[in-house]
Amino acid sequence: MIRFQNLCKSFVVRGSKRVIVDDLTLTIPSGVCVGLLGRNGAGKSTMMSLIAGTQEPDSGTIWSDGTISWPVGFRGSFHGELTGAQNVRFVARVYGVDTDELTDFVEDFAELGSSFHMPFRTYSSGMRSRLTFGISMGIPFDTYLVDEVTAVGDARFRRKSAAVFRERILNSSAILVNHNLNELREYCDAAIVLHEGQLTFFSDLDEAVSRHQWNMR
């Protein structure tokens, strides 16, 4: 379960205040895979960062009774001078998981070959996403935050990523951002819609999609 209590977050952009959420009180239940819907610029990435704890709200609180992943694909905590393997070992120590087990999983999953032992700064965007997605899937979280990262790579790698993700959410919750509504329907049974500073939970995905499409008009 993730609970928002009187949550507020805004930015000042070119002298104008841009509100992401305004006095939000909402509970996302455990055991569901939830789509996060909203128009471009609504603040979906900011919401994911708030939930992950990588950004602080202006006021209010976010509480969870389980562990939450960083936004899958987020690369801000990876050291450019360390190799992919060294970054994996560092993350394993931070999260208290078996270092060798996570390293073996990520090396096999990401399919980086010898680049796994090269500095992270030398990686292409796709290689970085494959590494970070692999690390996320290799650590058991109660809730996974995913931002369209299963679209990385060729068709075979996308199928592989989707299969691993489906396996993880059998026993975990997830919050997904994906502009492809058909793909959301493959994973999600509920959704939250972010619009003009308000976040609304819908237990029926189709109802949420209808509201989102109305907001887009």
Keywords:
globular; 217 residues; 9 strands; 6-stranded mixed sheet; 36% helix; 3-stranded antiparallel sheet; 7 helices; alpha/beta
Describe this structure in words.
With 217 residues, this protein is of the alpha/beta class. The chain contains seven helices and nine strands; from the N terminus they run βββαββαααβαβαββα. The protein has helices at 44-52, 84-95, 99-110, 125-138, 155-168, 181-187, 205-215; strands spanning 2-13, 16-28, 33-37, 59-64, 68-72, 143-147, 173-177, 190-195, 198-202. Strands 5-6-7-3-8-9 form a six-stranded mixed sheet, sandwiched between helices. The chain has a three-stranded antiparallel sheet with strand order 2-1-4. A hairpin with a 2-residue loop joins β8 (190-195) and β9 (198-202). The radius of gyration is 18 Å and the shape is globular.
Topology (elements, then pairings):
Layout: E1 2-13, E2 16-28, E3 33-37, H1 44-52, E4 59-64, E5 68-72, H2 84-95, H3 99-110, H4 125-138, E6 143-147, H5 155-168, E7 173-177, H6 181-187, E8 190-195, E9 198-202, H7 205-215
Parallel strand pairs: 3-7, 3-8, 5-6, 6-7
Antiparallel strand pairs: 1-2, 1-4, 8-9
